[in-house]
C-alpha cells in the first residue's frame, strides 16, 4: 500500500512542518479567508431554508425534519425540490436552540469552523491519495508527501470558489457533506491493516462504518454518495495496485491475458460488492423518500436541459462544464446565481464559445492520457486519483443522470475543488522538480497566488455579508441575468426605495418577459403609487403565464377592486383561493371587497375564514369588530373583540376598536381601561387620544377629556372632528365656569 518515495515532494517551496504545525497552518489560512463573514446577515436562499423554515422552531415536532425537504416543504408536495437533508436541518435547529432564536452569528461561526476542520482533514486525505497508505510501528499513518499534501490543503482552504458554501448559511449542506465524505474515505482506509495488500485481510466492520458515514453524508447533501466512487478508485489503484491501462489493454486485445487471481485473492470483489450493495440500498431509500418522482424544474432554472436538439443540449452541457473548470482555475468571476439568461444558450456549432469546451476536452484528454499511459507509476496514480476526486463528486450536477435545477452553482464545486487542488499541487511539485533552477521564482509566484486567493476570499465573503452587497456585486458579472436585477430591486423595495426598485424590476421583465415574480412585485409597487392601469396589465400577464400563481391573482384582485371592477376582483380572489386553499390574506382582501359592496354577512364570513386559517390575523379581527360596530351589532362586536384579545393580548388596534364599542355600550370604566392599555403600547396614537377624550367627554370627566383632546391635536392637528369636539368642550367648560357661584 505504501508507494515509492514521492520524488517531487522535497522540491516544493514550502517548509517541512510536523503534522500538528501543518494542520494549525491550514486551519489559520481557512479562518483568515472567511472570518469576516462571521457577523453577516441571512442572505438569498437563507430566507427560505432558515428564516421561513418552521422546522427550525422548537414548537415544531422534531419528526418533521425527517418528513420535509431542506426548505421545510413536505416531500410529497409538487412544489418540493426533493432536497432531503435532515442532518443539515438538524444542525440549523441546534443553532436556533443554542442562540435562542434566529441570530445569524452562530450560524456563520459554525460554517467557518466546519470549513477549517474540513481543510485540516484534507491533509490526511491528500497524503493517502498521493503517498499511499502506510503505518509506523505504533500504527499511525505515515505521510510520504508532507509538502504536497500541505500545499494542496492550503489551496483548498483558501480557494475563493468556496465562499458561497462558507459565507452563505445554506452552504452548511456542502460543508457537512464534505466532512462526512472525508470521514467515510478515511474510515475505509482504516479497513486495511499492515500487510493486507498481501494476504487479502481487511476489516468488514470498518467498511460498514464507512458506508454508514457515506449515508450520513448523503443525509446532509445528495452528493455524499459519490464517496463510494472515490473509495473504489482508491482500492483499485492503491490497495490492489492495478495498472488500469495495462489491464484494459490486455482484456481488449487478449495478448498476455492478466492473471486476476491475485486481485481476487486480495478481496477486491468482496469490498466492491459491499459498497455496491450499500450504495444501491441508499439510492433505493432515497428514491422512496423522494416519492419515486424527480423534482420539477422550469426552463429558466436549466434551459439547456429543455433543449429538444440533442446535439445542442450536449454542447451546452459541455460549455457549462468548461465554466465550472474556469471557476476553479480563475475564481474571480463569481455570482450568487447563474440562471435566467446569465449564460445564453449556444445555438449552433459556429458560436465562438465552442472553443472553450474544445479546450476543456483537450486538457482532460491530455490529463487522462498521462494518468493512464505515463511510464511513471507515481504520476499515473496521482493524476488518476486527482481526476477521480475532481470528476466523481461533480457527477450528480452534470445533467447526465437527471436534470438539475441550475446552470452553474459554485457550491457544487466544494468537493470537486479538492481534486483540482491536488492536481494543482502535483503540477507545481513536478514543475519544481523539472525546473529546480527557477525555485525562487516559483516561490514568489506561489506566494503571490496564495495572497490573491486570501484577498479574493476576504472580498467575496464580505460581499456575502448582506443582500445589498451580494446582489449588487452580481450586476457586473451577470448583467443579462433577470434574477440578479429582480433581487436588487426586491432588496431596494424592502429598504423603502421603491423608485429605484421599479427600474430594476422593469429591467428584469425586459430581460425575461415571462418573469412572473418580477411582474407581480412591480405591479404591487405601481398599485401603491396608484398607477392602477399598468399594474392591472402586469398582474394579468403574470397569471396568464402562470395560472396557478396565487399571490398574483390576489394582487390582481386588489387592483381591480381599486378600479371598482368588483366582479372581476371577486373572481380573481377566488382563483387565488382555488390555487392556495389556506390563504388567509386573500380571505381578508375578499372581505374588504364585500364590505365595499355592503355585503356585510359575506365580509364577516371571509374575515372569519382568515382568522381560522391564521388565528393571529390582526387586521381580519379588527375589521370584524369595526364592521359590527358600524352596523350597530355592539354585543357581537364586543364578543369578537374579546375573543381576538385572547389570541392577541398586546394588539393595540383591537384594544382601540373594542374600547370604542364598550364606550357606546356605556361600559365607561372598562372602555377607559382598554384605551389606556392601548396608549401604553402606542402612546403616539392621535386617534386613540381623541377617542379617549370623547369617552371622558360623555362620561363627564371634562378635565381628562380636555387633556386628551389637546394631546391628540398636538400629535395630529388635522385629526377629523377632534378640534370641533375640543371647541365644544371648551365652550362647555366656560359655561360651567361662568355659572359657578
Automatic annotation (TrEMBL):
UniProt keyword RNA-binding, yes or no: no
Signal sequence range: none
SMART domains the UniProt entry points to: TPR
Membrane topology, from the record: Multi-pass membrane protein
Pfam family, any one: TPR_16
Chief location: endoplasmic reticulum
Gene3D superfamilies with a match to the protein in the record: Tetratricopeptide repeat domain (1.25.40.10)
GO cellular component, one term: membrane
Keywords recorded for this protein, A-Z: Endoplasmic reticulum, Membrane, Repeat, TPR repeat, Transferase, Transmembrane, Transmembrane helix
InterPro entries from the UniProt entry: O-mannosyl-transferase_TMTC, TMTC_DUF1736, TPR-like_helical_dom_sf, TPR_rpt
GO MF term list: dolichyl-phosphate-mannose-protein mannosyltransferase activity
TPR repeats: 482-515, 516-549, 584-617, 652-685, 686-719
Record-listed E.C. numbers: 2.4.1.109
Protein family membership: Belongs to the TMTC family.
Domain DUF1736: 293-365
Biological process according to GO: endoplasmic reticulum unfolded protein response
Pathway given in the UniProt record: Protein modification; protein glycosylation
Protein localization: Endoplasmic reticulum; Membrane
Transmembrane feature ranges: 112-133, 202-219, 225-247, 325-346, 353-372, 384-405, 412-429, 441-459
Record protein name field: dolichyl-phosphate-mannose--protein mannosyltransferase
